[in-house]
Write a structure and sequence with these properties.
Shape: globular
CATH architecture: Alpha-Beta Barrel
CATH superfamily: Glycoside hydrolase/deacetylase
Number of domains: 1
Distance between the termini: 6 Å
CATH topology: TIM Barrel
Structural class: alpha/beta
Helix content: 40-55%
Radius of gyration: 18 Å
Largest sheet: 7 strands, mixed
Order of helices and strands: HEEEHEHEHEHEHEHEEEHH
Number of helices: 9
CATH class: Alpha Beta
Length: about 260
Amino acid sequence: MRSDLKRLIFWFLHTVYIMRRLFGAPQEVVVLMYHSVGQEDWEFTVTPENFEKQIRYLKNRGYLFWDFRELKEFLTGRRNSIRQAVVVTFDDGYRDFVTNALPILRRYQIPALLLIHTDRSSYELGNQYPLMSWDDIKKVASQGVKIGCHSHSHPNMKQLSDEQLRQELEESAQMFREHLGFAPTLFAYPGGKFNASVIQMLKESGYTLGFTIDRGLVHKGDNPFTLKRNGISAHTSLLEFKVRTSHAGEWYEHIVQLLKL
């Protein structure tokens, strides 16, 4: 889509959403997906300056910052949100989470969920950016960052046999127990690839939430294993961020599908 048309649509939807909020608060949760916060020239790297602008915007707008426990309570109807709520997640566990993202999160007292693949290899990631070590992960976990699983080797899980899938989950759980002392219950699908067999295996392995990369919001009663997230990239303007963190983001996705933009 041409950038000027995209910007115009975002501006219009954001304006409509602000007017809509005057008539009541929505019962929905925004889950944000980040990867890297740094200066690398990579699509999935957000600069520290832009990351702080995004967090500050949410804070100034009165968003509630939830962790996974509050999200689970919301899904089952045991928690309501009188204001817009947001959950901040990071995939892969890049080293710049420690050096760049975490200081900003602490400054604004924001909880975060870090979703890691346990072999700590860059082989399947398509880049060579430094990853957190297990010592790094253990340290941030001791400081309150919640840790979830992103598989063991970051494969396309739809292409795995049942035996391979079971081994992937068993190996990741073993690494969690060895390094962190617990088995994970939160999962993010590598590359967003999953199917019914993957979900069933996750349930059998003790997982309770599964995060996708499909854009959208989380609503009460949603399937806890197909939770939508809004990926934030180097190209996400502050205007687009405002739209993605509101119901206007879902309107935008409907427009894109309708007009095939």
